[in-house]
Amino acid sequence: MDGIGIIKGLGVTLRRFIATYVDDIKWLGRRYYKEEGIQHRSSADTDGIFTVQYPEEKIPVPEEFRFIPFLVYEEKDDGSVFYRCTSCGICAKVCPTQCIWIVRTTDPRTGRPVPEPAEFYIDVDICMNCGFCAEYCPFDAIKMDHDYELAVYDRHANNIYDKKKLGKPVSYYASIRPTNYKREEELRAEAEALKAAKKTPAN
Amino acid sequence: MNEGLNKPEYEIPPEMKHSVAITTIDRIYNWSRRSSIWPMMFGLACCAIEMICTAASRFDLARFGMEVMRPSPRQSDLMLVSGTVTKKMIPQIVRLYNQMPEPKYVVAMGACASGGGPFKEGYNVVSGVDNYIPVDVYIPGCPPTPQALLNGLITLQKKIDTQSIRDVRWYKKGTSETIPVPVLGPDIMDPREYDLLRQYTFQKLNPENINQPSVAEQEKGS
Fold first, then answer.
1. Contacts of A41 (CB under 8 A, 6+ apart)
2. Out of A51, A58, A153, whose CB is closest to B58?
3. Quick one: pLDDT at residue B122?
4. CA distance A92 to A121
5. Are the beta carbons of A124 and B111 closer than 8 angstroms?
6. Of A80, B24, B179, B212, which shows the fewest CB atoms inside 10 Å?
7. Strand order in the sheet with A113-123
């Protein structure tokens, strides 16, 4: 019969429409403004209205979601921070848009380079979020962020991110990408064990 | 009564809390203006897809009073520059901006519109639409997700809230100046020079045929 598809389609719309009101009554007053309501909305068994009420409710981003890169630093017990970056410049070389600018540190006495960046800039008005820098970094020092709320009024003052603005602790990285972090830590532990095993017979 | 309309500096007695609003002209203006921003309906590149997604039911611009995307600059308040602005496109963008009635706002969406993006050094792309028209909000990202765009639009609404009738340029006396439409010139390619450019390219490719007739002459002859 002709038109059966239209009736089916409209049926779906009608079901959604009714489910919206049923959901409204079921979650009265706590759907968008309470933690449990937001959690229910982001789960798979939510029903009814499809619209994301953005500032209150946010869609959880997948783990591999990538936005602007950030620099990972480790926090020591005495409160000082240690950037994993060694200013090798691989990220700046692979960057297709060339939005990374690194200034190396040199030892003032010897004039030799020191493996840490003196300055590290990313122009987020050029960055195209491809993730090559994070992919190629041999020290796991640069990673892609999940934070996308970056709108500004003045790009010349705000949109060239420096080392301080890019730096984020390892704990933050572990919180946004748990599986990647776990895998990397396992690999690191393995490599260190191998190194230790190699050293032992020589002694 | 909308809470946003009340001016917080003025104390309202508790028994009149829900029936009286004390406000200022500025606040009414800003409140009504920021709740009915109509964007212009045009997209330039891949960012436009995200803009379309934002306007559709999943994210729904209508929640901010922006659902009416106008296909005419005469009826729109907001220009969402969504995508790469090429040198061929910028005269049209500036012309559209001039045709928009005031108050008007511009949002540069994505890396390309704000700073040229991956094509910054390209021969055919403008490195930042803000070289030509005043931009109010920049949204980084390539492309910004719908939620990032909504965040940018909320940022714009916050900016409108801070404006005052006394110092905004469109409420001052006299007419505001139109922005000159960029002419396609040496930096931006001029279509009137196509013939010359073609000749130049031909010369470069075949150095021995320097006196090659131009395309216009060829067409005349044939």
1. A31, A32, A57
2. A51
3. 82
4. 10
5. yes
6. A80
7. A100-106, A113-123, A160-161
With a CB cutoff of 8 Å and minimum separation 6, the contacts of A87 are: A102, A103, A104, A105, A113, A115, A116, A117, A118, A120
The answer to whether the CB atoms of A128 and B142 lie below 8 A apart is yes
Across the interface, of A51, A59, A155, the residue whose CB is closest to B147 is: A59
B83: left (phi over 0), alpha (psi -120 to 50) or beta: left
Which pLDDT value is given to residue B1? 45
CB contact under 8 A, B151 and A52: no
Domains of chain A: 7-60 (no CATH), 69-199 (3.30.70.3270)
> Does residue B216 surpass a pLDDT of 60?
no
Give the pLDDT confidence score for residue B155 in this predicted structure: 93
In angstroms, rounded to a whole number, what is the distance separating the alpha carbons of residues B111 and B129? 11
Spatial separation of the C-alpha atoms in residues B90 and B182, rounded to whole Å: 7
Enclosing H/E stretch for B133? none
Q: Which residues of A touch B108 (CB under 8 A)?
A: 155
Neighbours of A170 (CB within 10 A): 17
Rounded Cα–Cα distance for residues B150 and A159 (Å): 19
Helix (H, G, I), strand (E, B) or coil at A82: strand
The answer, as to whether pTM is greater than 0.90, is: no
pLDDT in tens, B78-126: 999 999 998 888 888 988 998 999 889 999 999 999 988 888 888 888 8
Interface of B with A (CB under 8 A): 57-60, 63, 108, 111, 114-118, 120, 128, 130, 135-142, 144-145, 147-148, 150-152, 154-155, 159
- Please give chain A's pLDDT, 203 residues, in tens: 889 999 999 998 899 889 888 887 887 777 777 777 777 777 777 777 778 888 888 888 888 999 999 999 998 888 888 899 999 999 999 999 899 999 988 888 888 888 888 999 999 999 999 999 999 999 889 999 999 999 999 988 888 999 999 999 999 999 999 999 999 999 999 999 999 988 876 55
> Does A148 contact B147 at a Cβ distance shorter than 8 Å?
yes
β partners of residue A38: none
